[in-house]
């Protein structure tokens, strides 16, 4: 009887999990995204016509390049100073992307899970971070 229960529990668990395809539609994904909020380690961005030099942002381009607006240095006390850097991005699975860029710390690789994407909002969760010091 116990063996039957141990077999049934994983099956019930698998069928009770909700699957959501977070694969980005290229038309939705490409373009400028301005940082909006951070909720439970989920970075939320809103779609914009252009990047702002007064806020964090990402611009994903069809040729797998990107522009990133970030802090110039490590100090996040006002007044904040931003810079625009270029980098590259790649889709590593249906719902994950890898972005590579440089900042004041060195070469950075951020691996994100795409929690949600639509025409107006992009929600990302950082799942891996690698830095190569200068």
Automatic annotation (TrEMBL):
Entry superkingdom: Bacteria
PROSITE patterns: PROKAR_LIPOPROTEIN (PS51257)
Protein name: Lipocalin-like domain-containing protein
């Amino acid at each position: 009887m116990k063996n039957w229960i141990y077999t049934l529990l994983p099956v019930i668990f698998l069928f009770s999990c909700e699957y959501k395809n977070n694969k980005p539609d290229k038309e939705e994904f490409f373009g400028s995204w301005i940082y909006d909020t951070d909720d439970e380690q989920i970075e939320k961005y809103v779609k914009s016509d252009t990047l702002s030099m007064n806020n964090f942002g990402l611009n994903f381009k069809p040729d797998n390049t990107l522009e990133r607006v970030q802090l110039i240095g490590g100090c996040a006390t006002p007044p904040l100073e931003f810079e625009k850097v270029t980098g590259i991005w790649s889709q590593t699975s249906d719902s994950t992307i890898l972005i590579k860029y440089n900042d004041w710390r060195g070469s950075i690789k951020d691996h994100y899970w795409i929690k949600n994407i639509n025409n107006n909002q992009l929600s990302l969760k950082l799942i891996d971070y690698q830095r190569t010091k200068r």
